[in-house]
Amino acid sequence: MRLYEYEAKKVFDTVGIPVPKQYGIINSASEIEKLEIKFPVMLKSMVLVGGRGKAGGIKKVSGKGEAKSVLEKLFKTKIRGYPVEAVLVEEAVKSSSACYVGVTMDPVTYNNVVIVSSSGGVDIEKVAKEKPEAIFKKEIKENNLLLPGSAANELSSLLNKDLKLDSVMEKKLADIISKLYNAYQGFDLKICEINPLIITPEGPVAADAKIVLDDNALFRQNELLKTLCISEKRHDVAEPTKNEKIAQSSNFPYVDLLPEKTVKEKDKLYVGLVPGGAGYGIFSIDEVSNIGKRYFGGRVVPVNFMDSGGGPSQERVSKMFHLLMDYPLVDIIITSRFGGISSCDIF
């Protein structure tokens, strides 16, 4: 589950990672009038996808009049298909340089890995592809709960070859790296990164923040979720849809494959899927999509993923069917199952 930037910065603040001053979250342009602001500030669209800056979702403004004009445009913007419904108003921090610091798990070795680069503020995947020598990685093979000081100092020193900081600032950089790793471990995170980590005269500041929590460990993070006022699970890229909330309350996995406000096209057939398991669910999506492309010119569209699990009750299956029967987009429902796992009588 991915956090919004302002939520991730609350996490950073609790572990001692400096962040810019946040003036508030607003949901309309007129709300800027209620905030006591020292300009310039950054207006940052709160959507759970990357590329906000390139899409025009992050703007620096110098006065209230300019801010209101920019906000009116932002609230009409969609970033990768997701509407901007909230904007973070944040202090604009001056910087002399910037870098990238992140922690995640290596999918090959399953070791935790700390990644740093002096190329901060740009797409790190692009840097990895075009300039791999600019990225340094340190695998933490012992899965330490706290980052060893030697590892933090090594990574800080590697960054400083390009940043050219004094010894005091290099030590502060090592401290940020340690705190980021410790937050990653302490809060059961899948991804924890700062891009950019900007260098100011006072020290490094996290100008942006990305955190993705491990869904399988959410039960251990009730206190964190309570602090962030998060009461329900969300996706890595969006809030749950109406259908997904219904499914959550009924305790079965469900994912909408189309945006919530998709407009139905008359020449297309929209297929709802009630499979007997996760594997069947993925297979059904692929099969409907492939058949639609091969024989119907792409006019057959799967609308959902769903998983009944093994041996579901009649009540659960009924709720699954009713969810799709009440979904106006759905034209037809297809169900598939393996008789050895689920009783076909239930369906």
Give a description of the structure.
With 347 residues, this protein is α+β, with helices and mostly antiparallel strands. It has three domains: 21-91, ATP-grasp fold, A domain (Dna Ligase, domain 1, 2-Layer Sandwich); 97-227, ATP-grasp fold, B domain (D-amino Acid Aminotransferase, Chain A, domain 1); 242-346, Rossmann fold, CATH 3.40.50.261. Helices cover 31% and strands 24% of the residues. The protein has nine helices and 17 strands. It has helices spanning 5-14, 64-74, 124-130, 149-163, 167-186, 222-227, 242-250, 278-296, 314-325, and strands at residues 22-26, 41-45, 58-61, 78-79, 82-83, 87-91, 97-105, 112-117, 135-140, 189-200, 203-206, 210-213, 254-256, 269-275, 300-302, 304-306, 332-336. Strands 7, 8, 9, 10, 11 and 12 form a six-stranded antiparallel β-sheet that branches. Strand 10 (189-200) and strand 11 (203-206) form a beta hairpin. Helix 4 packs across helix 5 and helix 7 runs antiparallel to helix 9 (314-325). The longest helix has 20 residues, at 167-186. The protein is globular, with a radius of gyration of 23 Å.
